[in-house]
Specification:
By secondary structure, the chain is of the alpha/beta class. The chain is built from eleven helices and 25 strands. A six-stranded mixed β-sheet has the order 5-2-1-9-21-20, with helices on one face. α1 packs parallel to α9 and α4 packs antiparallel against α5.
């Protein structure tokens, strides 16, 4: 066992990529995460909307490193960093010493100063969030079936998604298809196809990060699915009775928050500058300023491209950053010059709208519609970990496409919210 100790906090895309790329390097690695699984977040919304089971998009972290004796995996929560003593502080009082520390602790949803909305408007960052949303969506239909008061029934059959980025658009499209295609023949007292799905966006268009023509296509695809879009006014209140959009109150019993993200407190742990979303501002080598042996990557880091625009908080960016830090560490241990500054290579933006429509922007080519949906599906299957899960997800999608029946509609657990 080598003496040089690399501690990685976070088992997401960036942390796993780093650990994988350090294979064969003269280091021992400790990987710390407060959950025991790696989550394929791009498909998390499909768990929330009954398309996939939790086990199809999450895998035990320990299983990845069972043949890597130099890797120790710890199920623990980091609460701070003592950079002077080169120690990571764990909840419970334990400490872990490091030679190089990499913080890849991700982000959670942000309520722009209204954290009191979270109990009634859960976001979507964890499996717990997804199962909570799935439970609320399914229970809304069940409760509406029993309800005799028309006003209450209408509120139960109204679903509001706040934020028209990829997550919001994908949620709205699938919930609409669930109501209009999968459920109508299964209920007797309600017409699920008359459910209202409202997508709220404070800005002027959906999917603002995409080219305007693709955004326009996505808007038309959503409208074809029966999704109502509210532009230009922010949500000003959320409660168990409904949501207020600007000055207009909408009775609604199911609200999903997809409007913003907030980074983990890594910047506070290190006492370094952070951007407005709490992401730690790092240098061109992804190091924390003034801390030679601490790197911050993924959604936790604020990284600028050569043109001054921010690197997006998406899985490919986190993987590239993990790969880059591995090269820096290996060069240091080999006594070789460090690679040049980190350069992000954008591989394209993808979003799906319902079962057979999607948009893809590779820069040099733009796709939309049915073909884009197939390319989107193949890309996601490719990036899943392991042949077993690729086959499982592909089969689930094929079954849904043919039968129009969602395969994960069991209501089996109590409310589960994000742990504080």
């Amino acid at each position: 066992m080598q003496d040089y100790h690399v501690v990685i906090v976070g088992g997401g895309f960036g942390g796993l990529q780093l650990a994988n790329d350090l294979k064969g390097a003269p280091v021992r690695i400790t990987l710390i995460d407060r959950r025991n699984h790696h989550l394929f977040q791009p498909l998390l919304y499909q768990v929330a909307t009954t398309l996939l089971a939790t086990s199809e998009i999450a895998w035990p972290i320990r299983s990845f490193f069972r043949d890597r004796p130099e890797v120790t995996t710890l199920l623990a929560e980091v609460v701070g960093v003592d950079s002077e003593a080169h120690q990571v502080l764990l909840k419970g009082g334990q400490t872990i010493a490091y030679d190089t520390l990499v913080l890849a602790t991700g982000a959670t949803h942000a309520y722009f100063g209204h954290d009191e909305w979270e109990p009634v408007a859960p976001g979507l960052k964890t499996l717990e969030d997804a199962t909570t949303i799935r439970r609320r969506v399914l229970l809304a239909f069940e409760q509406a079936e029993l309800e005799s008061d028309p006003a209450v029934r209408d509120a139960l059959l109204t679903f509001t998604i706040v934020g028209a980025g990829p997550t919001g658009v994908e949620l709205a499209g699938i919930i609409s298809e669930l109501a209009r295609t999968t459920l109508p023949k299964e209920f007797r007292n309600i017409d699920t196809s008359k459910a209202r799905i409202i997508l709220v966006e404070a800005g002027p268009r959906v999917l603002a990060a995409f080219a305007e023509d693709l955004s326009t296509y996505a808007l038309k695809a959503l409208e074809a699915l029966g999704v109502g879009i509210r532009f230009g006014k922010p949500v000003t209140s959320c409660s168990a009775e409904g949501v207020t959009i600007g000055d207009s109150f909408v009775p609604c019993r199911t609200i999903v928050w997809a409007a913003g993200v907030e980074a983990s407190p890594a910047a506070k742990w290190l006492d370094i500058p952070a951007d407005r979303a709490g992401r730690a501002v790092v240098d061109k080598e992804l190091r924390a300023p003034g801390k030679e042996d601490i790197f911050v990557i993924g959604d936790t880091a604020s990284v600028l491209r050569e043109d001054g625009s921010p690197v997006p908080g998406i899985a490919p960016a986190a993987k590239q950053q993990g790969d880059y830090v591995a090269k820096v560490i290996k060069a240091k241990l080999a006594g070789k010059p460090a690679p040049g500054p980190f350069r992000y290579r954008h591989q394209g933006s993808l979003a799906t709208i319902g079962k057979s429509a999607a948009i893809i922007d590779f820069g040099w080519i733009k796709l939309r519609g049915w073909l884009a949906w197939w390319v989107w599906g193949l890309a996601h299957i490719y990036f899943l970990i392991g042949t077993r899960w690729r086959i499982a997800v592909a089969w689930s999608w094929l079954w849904i496409y043919i039968s129009r029946q969602h395969s994960a509609r069991l209501i089996t657990q109590k409310e589960t919210m994000r742990e504080e």
